[in-house]
Amino acid sequence: MSRLLLVVLLLANVGTAIGVVYARHLHRQSFIELARLEKTRDELNIEFGRLQLEQATVAESNRIDAIARTRLGMKFPEASDVVVIQP
């Protein structure tokens, strides 16, 4: 009877040890995935900041006005060229 109890306790101990090793393995895999995802998040945040800065630069009204004048030959209409339509 005591031998059976000893064998059962030994198997329970080995099973628990295997469970702990497996849980630690899963924890390490999860931690590696978390670190990878955090790195990706940080890279995306940096890229988003760059894109916001680029958008602010491209959408600046002085720049748009200069491009309209130089590349497209646009200008503000003279007062004599403005026609007001009454409803």
From TrEMBL:
List the Pfam families hit by this protein, alphabetically: FtsL
Record's subcellular location: Cell inner membrane; Cell membrane
- Membrane topology classification: Single-pass type II membrane protein
Keywords, alphabetical: Cell cycle, Cell division, Cell inner membrane, Cell membrane, Membrane, Transmembrane, Transmembrane helix
The record's annotation in InterPro entries points to: Cell_div_FtsL
**One Gene Ontology cellular component annotation?**
plasma membrane
GO biological process terms on file: FtsZ-dependent cytokinesis
Q: Which family does it belong to?
A: Belongs to the FtsL family.
Summary of the function given for this chain in its UniProt record: Essential cell division protein. May link together the upstream cell division proteins, which are predominantly cytoplasmic, with the downstream cell division proteins, which are predominantly periplasmic.
UniProt subunit comment: Part of a complex composed of FtsB, FtsL and FtsQ.
Name of protein: Cell division protein FtsL
Q: Which organism is it from?
A: Pseudoxanthomonas dokdonensis
Which gene underlies this protein?
Answer: ftsL
